[in-house]
Amino acid sequence: MHNGPFPAEADIYRFRKQKGVNLGSWFVLERWIANSPFRFAISPGQSDLDVARGSNAKTVLEEHWDNWITEQDWAWIADQGINTVRIPIGYYHICGADPSVLQGTDFADLGDVFAGAWSRITKALATAHRYRIGVLFDLHAAPGKQNRDSHSGTSASNPAFFSERRNMPHTIHVLTALLSNLGAFSRAQTPPLPNLVGIELLNEPAPGGHNHALEKWYRETFRALRAVDADIPLYIGDAWMTDQYAGFLADSKVPFAVLDHHLYRCFTKEDISTSAAQHARVLTEGGAQTPQMFGRVSRKLESAGGALVVGEWSGALNPGSLQGSGNQLKDQKAFVEAQLSLYERWCSGWFFWTYKKEQAGDKGWSFRDAVNAGVIPPGWDWWQRSRWKTALTEFAGGIKHETKPSANIHHIGHVSSTPPSSPVPELGFIGPWVKRRSQVYVTAKGDTNRWEYEHGLPQGIAAARKDFANMYC
């Protein structure tokens, strides 16, 4: 834990509520999002490996990395109120920083093709900082691939992440290399970059009968990464077993651990036969299964010092859900608003999938097109676009619940020192923040009344948020 100014700039990035978007198909390619990088790919032409083994691969990839997300994209993203991006990468994209990540893998002889990715990855972190945008790096493709999808690096139909023993420890090496080199890059800048908000250990793992192995691997990876950086937030995928992995995180007692759940409503037979209006209703009705699960999991994680985010979601509905709709745009907008309402209530952050598509016009999957078409409603981010004299809602909450005069002065000092015109970063990661502050409290005052502090602080945060909404929104 740092001993510098409170809160540090990195605290603002990491603890604020994340209103995010995925920068899909920038590094880990998906043909349905960006087709042009696949023009020389070998058959079946669906994965990064297929592109890398095709002709002109190095030139094709570097041109794509340099042009898919440009300065204009960063400016547009920031202008929409997005404060964090999730960037999917493959382990092979790290080889420019550490060539050993390729040893014994499907990409072992492709170091020259991917060596240039690292400079683009670090440039992305630096550019994001200029726009006050945080970055969550997500290991989307692991050695051996962790699920059957081609976005896990190869077109192979049988993932070997769990079945071949070398892959899991090698992935820990990959993540350690990623975090070590990102940290070194960030510290080398003047001033150091504070906007790395976390590392996601593994995107959408499909453990099958290997749940115990995945949990064991998560624990080992937590230990390895905490040895590199004691404070970096660590995100894990829930493998669509949200209650199980919420319990796992609560029992693990890992500081600042975040559970990532992905929510889509367009793939299953049940999704297709459900109308758009009903999809929206079951996300907002208090007694429905999904809101109940979100509330249950969020409360469990928060009480354990963890948090819940939705790392991927979209406005996409299957055409079957829109049959008979009198106004498809209105129904799709209602579906998006229902999701935002759910996430705003229970989650510490969310990330739309995806930022854009090469072929414009998909208002279900492309954030840019959804915004331009009004599917994502204007003014969706009522908090971020509001103004107030505070840096974090916790400060106002602290005034309500920390009764010592010195504590009041401490909090008021931060409130009054913030210019009234500065954007309000809403505190999102309440569980990790309460654990962080309670450690400071215990250091200063001993264990006396710690229980009251840990229960009173979230109540103060909630009261401050309500006051803010009533007064300024």
UniProtKB/TrEMBL annotation:
- Among its keywords, does the record have Signal? no
- Signal peptide bounds: none
Any one GO CC term of the record: cell surface
Q: Which GO terms describe its molecular function?
A: glucan endo-1,6-beta-glucosidase activity
Domain Glycoside hydrolase family: start-end pairs: 61-356
Give the record's keywords alphabetically. Glycosidase, Hydrolase
Q: Which SUPFAM superfamilies match?
A: (Trans)glycosidases
Q: Name one GO biological process term.
A: glucan catabolic process
Q: By its UniProt entry, which InterPro entries does this protein fall under?
A: GH, Glyco_hydro_5, Glycosyl_hydrolase_5
Claim: Hydrolase is one of the keywords in the record: yes
Record-linked PANTHER family: GLUCAN 1,3-BETA-GLUCOSIDASE 3, GLUCAN ENDO-1,6-BETA-GLUCOSIDASE B
Query: What family is this?
Result: Belongs to the glycosyl hydrolase 5 (cellulase A) family.
Name listed for the protein in its UniProt record? Glucan 1,3-beta-glucosidase 3
Taxonomically, what lineage is the organism? Eukaryota, Fungi, Dikarya, Basidiomycota, Agaricomycotina
